[in-house]
Sequence to fold (911 residues):
Amino acid sequence: MTEATGIVGEFLSLKEGTDADLLAMQCGDFYEFFAEDAEIVADELDLKVSQKSSHGSSYPMAGVPVDDLTPYVSALVERGYRVAVADQHETESGHAREITRVVTPGTHLETGDESAQYLAAVVREAGRDGGDTYGIAATDVTTGQFQVTQLDDADAGEALTELYTFAPAEILPGPELRNDDAFLDRLRERTDAALTLHDSASFEPGRASHTVREQFGSETVDSVGIGEQDAAVRAAGAVLSYVEDTGVGTLAAVTRLQAYGERDHVDLDATTQRNLELTETMQGDSSGSLFDTIDHTVTAAGGRLLRQWLQRPRRNRAELRRRQSCVAALSEAAMARERIRETLADAYDLERLAARATSGSADARDLRAVQETLALLGRVADTVAETERLAESPLADALDGADREAADALAAELDGALVADPPGTVRQGGLFERGYDADLDEVIDEHEAALEWLETLPDREKERTGITHLSVDRNKTDGYYIQVGKSETDAVPEEYQHVKTLKNSKRYTTPELDEKERDVLRLEERRHDMEYERFQELRERVAERATLLQDVGRALAELDAFASLSVHAVENDWTRPAVVEGDELAIEAGRHPVVEQTTEFVPNDLYMGADRQFLIVTGPNMSGKSTYMRQAALITLLAQVGSFVPARSATVGMVDGIFTRVGALDELAQGRSTFMVEMQELSNILHSATEESLVILDEVGRGTATFDGISIAWAATEYIVNSVRSKTLFATHYHELTALGEELPAVENVHVAVDGEPRAADGDGDVTFLRTVREGPTDRSYGVHVADLAGVPEPVVARSQEVLDRLRDDKAIEVRGSEGAGGGTTQAVFDLDSGQFKGASEDAGTGEPVATDGSPEHAPGTGSGGDDPTASLDPEAEAVLSELTGLDVTETPPVELMAKVQEWQAELDDE
Fold:
C-alpha cells in the first residue's frame, strides 16, 4: 500500500484496484492524474506537470477540465492505453470517488472514426480429428452489433482471417491461446488491435452460456443454432462480460445475436484485402481504394455499412439478388433517388445514438438528433411508396423492417419535450419546451420572475436614487451585487451595505437583494435538478427503444448504401451481373473499377469454367497483366457484394474465397525477405483455397534463382490444377510455363498483345502496348524495351539488347572489362548449358567458344553433348537421378517437393 495520504493517497489506492493503464480521478472541476500516470499523460498529450505534496513526498500532477476529458481520453485510447475514470459524488461526510468506467480501445464510445469499432474474443478447443475448433465473437459497442461464428476443423490461419475481416480495435484471447506465442505474434502482425487478457472464468462454458442467455434470451440463442458448449458461446460470453466490467453501459443496446456460418461470407484474408486495395491503397491511403471510389453515401452509417459489405461479401444468392434489385430500382428512378439522398443527408447516426442513450452519455442535442432522424423515415418511405419502380422493389420491404408508427410516436414525444436548439450541457437548464411538464413549468415561471426582478432592478434603483452609474451583476465570490461608480458613492441610500471597493467603483448589497438572491439560487437549483431528472427519464425512455433506433438506423443506412451503388453504376455505365452457382466466370468488356477513373481504359473479355480453369497470363511488364487479373477479382467481389460491375455483361459463379499473391517488399523488421514473404503467401493459398475459390497469382518464384523459381512455379501450377482445382489466373515471365497449356486440359494461355517489334542491338524497332488480352502465349519478353521507357541510360539498354540477342541465338556471352583494368573483353565466357562463367576465348572464325585447352567446348564425352549423358556420373548422382525419374511431380505437394530437392542437393554437396 502507498504511504501517500489525502487526494494522492486516494488516487494511488484506486489505481491499485484496477488493471487499467491510467486513471483519471475527478477532483472538483478537474480530472487529475498523479505520479507516473501524470508523467505519461503529460508526455502523450503535451500537458503541463505540477507537483502535489503528500506525506512528505512530492508527486507529479497533471489535469484536464471536467468538460474536456473526452477528447483527452480518446487520444490516450487511440494510443493503446486503457483509461479508468473515477467520478466524484457527494456524501454526508464530504466527497467520495469511485471508478465508474474503464475506457479501452474496443469499448470507446466517443470515437471520431465513422468506421465500425469492434471488440472481439477468440477461443480455441482441440479437435478430435487433428483440426481445432475456433469460436469468435465480435461486437461494435458504438452500434450494438453482435456477431458470432464457429470454425470447426480449422487452423490458426482461418481464425486469423476471420478476425481480420472485423478489423477489431481490441481482442480478448481465450485461456488456451494466451501462451501461444506464434498465434499472438501473427495476430499482432495482421491487426492493429490491442490484446487484453480478460478474466479466464468468463470463458468457462457454463458461465458464458448463462451470460449469453441472460443478454439475448434462451429462445434467441436456441434459434440461431449455437449450443451451450460451443466455442462460439464461450467467446460471446467473454465479450459480454468484458463490456459489463468496463462499465461502458451499452449492453442494453446489444439486442441482436447474429450467428453466421463459414459458408455465409467470402474469405478475404489480410493479404487479399491489401492487394486488392479494398479500403486503402498499398501505400496506406484511403484515396484511390475501391471503397473510396464507389462511396457516394451521404450518412456515416451508410458509409460504414458499404465498407462492411466490401470486406465481407456474401454467398447467399437470394440476398445478392435482393441487393441487386434495390440497386437496379434506384438506378432507374433517378429523380426519386436524388430526393431520397437529399433527405438522408440530414440523418444522424441512430445506431451510435442508441448506444449513447443506453450508456447514459447522450445529451439533449443527441436526443434532438434522434428526433430529427426518426422523422426522416416517414419522408423516405413516402418517396418509395409514391414511386412505382421503387414500390415494386425490395426497397419497400427493407423499410418495413423499421416500425414507422413507433418511430413517429417517439419523434413526436421528443419534439414536444426538447427546445429546438438545446444547450450542450444537461445540468444547466434550458432543455425543455413549455407545456411538457406542468410542475417544471411552475418552477420555471417562478425562476424567470425572480430573474426578471433582478434584471429590472438597475432601472428601478436609478430612478429611485438618482444615481446614473449603477448596475447589477453576479459572480461566484460576491454573489449578486449593486455596483456604483466612485463619483456617486456619496449618494447611495442607507440600506446599501458595502461589500467591496474597486479602483473606480464600489459594490453593495441590500437585505431585499440578498433575499431575492436566495430565491433565485433556490429556484435555479430546483429548476436544474428537475430538468435533469426529467431529462434522465426522457433519455431512459429513448434507451428502452434502442432496438427501434437500431432498426430505423440500419434501414436508412441500407438505403444510403444502395443509393451509393446506384449512383456509381449510372455514372460509370456498370451492369447488373448474373450471379450463378458453378465454375463459370464470363466477363465481356470488363474494366478495373478504380483504374478506369483515371485513364482511358481498354476493356477486355475473360472466360473461365470447368474446361478452362487455369489461365497463364503472359506479356510485357507494364502492359496490363496485373490490372487484368485484379479486375477479374474485383468484378467477382462486387458481384458478391450485390453491386453492379464495370463490364458490358458478366456471369459470375459464386466463390467461397478470393486469394491473391502479388509482388512483396522485404519485411526486414520481421526477419522475412521478399522470397520468404512470397512463399508464405503461396503456402497460405495452397492450404486455404478450394475448388470454389478464385486465386490470383501475380508472379511466383521471381524472388529466387531462375531455375528454382521456374521449378516452384511449375510445381505450384500442377498442384493447383490437379489438387486444389480453383479458378486461377497466373501472370508470369517464365515463358517455360506456357508449355503446360498444351499438356494440361484445364490450362490455357492468354497474353497481353503488343504492336511492333522491340528494338534490336542496332537501335531499330518500336513497340506499342495495346493492353488487349488475346488467346495464346506471348512470343517474347519486352523487358529491355521497358527499361528504355523507364529512362535507363542508353549504353545499358544497348548492351542489354546485345546480350539478349546472343542468348536467344544460343551464343556465349563475353564479359567486357574496364578500360582502366586492362581494356577489352576478358577470357570469361558465360556457358548457356552449365549456367556458369568459364575461362575461354572465342574462335575468331566461328564465333563459338573454345575451352582453354583448345578443344571444342561441347566435344563428345564432356557431359554436355555426348552420346551418354550419364557416363561421367558417380553412383550417388545416378541414385539421385533415378529417384527423380521415378517421382510423380503432379501428386507431390510443392512443400514436399522443395524439401526433396533440398535433400538431393545436400547429398550431392556431400559428395
Notes: Residues 665-671, 840-867 have pLDDT under 50 and may be disordered. Residues 750 and 775 are 4 Å apart (CA to CA).
